Amino acid sequence: MPRQPRSANVQPDKPKPAKRPPPRPTKKGKARSQADSLWKEMLDDFLERFMLLLFEDYHADVAWDKGYLSLDKEMIEVSEQAGFGTQSADKLFKVFLKDGSESLLLLHIEVQNYKDENFAHRVYDYNDLIGRKYNLDVESFAVLSDPEPNFRPSFYLRQRKRKRLLFEFEMVKLLDWWQRWQELEQSDNPFALVVMAHLKMQKLKRRPIELKEVKIQLIRLLFERGFSREYVIKLFRTIDNMVKLPPDKEAEFQTQVRNEFYGEDKIVRLSSFELQAQEKGLKQGRQEGMLTFALPWIEQRFGSVEPELKQQLESLSATQLQELGQQLLSLSSKTDLINWLKSKDVLVAASNS
Fold it and tell me: What does the pLDDT look like over 289-315, one tens digit per residue?
């Protein structure tokens, strides 16, 4: 017998709605699209850690040593077929279970700031469509990141006369993790930092002074955990993109982080900033955007940058600046930097010392 539902989402049988028209590109819509993309990237990078933290019981059933496959193209096709479009943070993965079978893991991430009464219906539609299309078991999981404490859909119920359909799915409300904050702080699971960043941004988004200090604390925890360089880079980027600061506080944050975290393990710590510098500069669409962030690190590694050398750096195209950001870790001296510039047909008059 199915468990008794906590509350009902009862809907009579009715034809499925036509495909929704594409939403207008409003400011809120763009912000949500960016948040969706961020969650999708995090799930690709940290799926196993994500499941361990939020859905531990199911995590134990998966043979993680066999890897997993992200089915983005397939998810887009199903999403369009269901009429939901492609602007969502829903993800589909193929995993292998310890009993030797294959399963599809369907993750629904609700990142909007209001409750969607049709959410449970959407989870059911996806599960049903994917199960019939691929003839595999589909396990559905929902992560609710909204601030509404009473919005907790965990099942879809459809009833008509004597017919009754009950579809249940696993659900986690990120808001509940405030009660387990100490557990998050002490966890060595990298996804714990993602949950912390989300909760703090949600609570302090209108209090930038406090939010800046929280962002520093999260970066401090990131380096204290002893994660690999790959994790440091990805988590730094995630925290930076998730915890947004106004320009003046962002400048203070950059200065404080540079002063505090540029330490002995320079390669690990510097690499995250080089990647961040590369991305921020290119997103701004200006060459000087990249240089603003990259020059301090070049000076820290190779010493002062002569006016002639700086001029050559300023002459690089956006594509060349992007490539330079990727190459900085492999350059061990100013001579290497100058030789790299020469290889790009940039004439360098600066000293090779």
Answer: 456 556 766 776 677 888 888 888 877
Alpha-carbon gap, residue 52 to 179, rounded angstroms: 18
Q: How far is Cα 101 from Cα 42, in angstroms, rounded to an integer? A: 26
Determine how many CB atoms are found less than 10 A away from the CB of residue 62: 22
**What is the greatest pairwise CA distance in the chain?**
86
Amino acid letter for position 299: E
Q: Which contiguous run of DSSP H or E holds residue 158?
A: strand 155-160
Q: Given the structure tokens 């939403």, which residue do they identify?
A: 23
pLDDT band, residue 74 (cuts 50/70/90): confident
Residue whose structure tokens are 């999981």 = 141
Structural tokens at position 111: 């990142």
Q: Residue 285 carries which side chain, given as an amino acid letter? A: G
Burial class of residue 170, CB neighbours in 10 A (0-12, 13-18, 19+): middle
Cα separation of 216 and 199, whole Å? 15
Query: What pLDDT, on the 0 to 100 scale, is given for residue 283?
Result: 44
Q: What is the mean pLDDT of residues 269-297?
A: 50
Tokens for 234, please give them: 């990805």
Q: Which two tokens stand for residue 315?
A: 């002459």
Integer Cα distance of 106 and 93 in angstroms: 6
Polymer length of the chain: 353
- Return the CA Rg of the chain: 24
Q: Assign 323 a pLDDT band (cuts: 50, 70, 90).
A: confident
